[in-house]
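Our consortium's second objective concerns turning raw sequence data into structural hypotheses that experimental partners can test. To show how far this objective has progressed, the report includes one record in full. It was chosen at random from the queue rather than selected for favorable results. The single chain below, 179 residues long, was entered without modification.
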Amino acid sequence: MTKYLQIRHWNYWWGVYGYANDPATIEFSITEDSAGEQFYFHLDIDTLPALKELLKSGEFIDKHDPSFQYFQRKAAELHQGSIDYFVGSLYYKDYMPDMAECNRYQQTENGIFSIKSPEMAPYYAAIFIREEKPLLPALLTEWMERLSPSLFCEHFTYKIANIPSREDVAKSYAEVMQA
């Protein structure tokens, strides 16, 4: 089955086409369709060079965070080659029951604390991979095909949807630089 990668920011394409640094970090959505209307999952992927910068800056995780030592240990394992990737964070959508659900407890006489949120799967993950090279399109799809069985328990093939032309990328870059 084919899934589509919807690149979310122009800076990725600026790197691909040589207007900015090579892409070491990428944010994208995975969709069921090339138009990007049927959402499947959302990912941020960072390579080893991006991870090195995040460790220097403390941008991803504060050194006082209880998970910081675990993060450092996973980063070291990634650099040493004992793991190929690790998940830095998972995100879940907020749950807000409808009014009927809010009042369901009254039929059971169990009290308002009996209303529990449903179990939810994450919709977004930040992942760090053992890769030194820039995440150009072919390498990105290769990594996704490698990660797919572990992340989603299914093998998917991937295509990048909506690849902009060099002219469109140049125009986008020029507009941002002029602003």
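The partners drew two points from this record. The chain is about 35% helix and 20% strand. The first strand starts at residue 2 and ends at 7. Both points have been shared with the crystallography group to help prioritize constructs.
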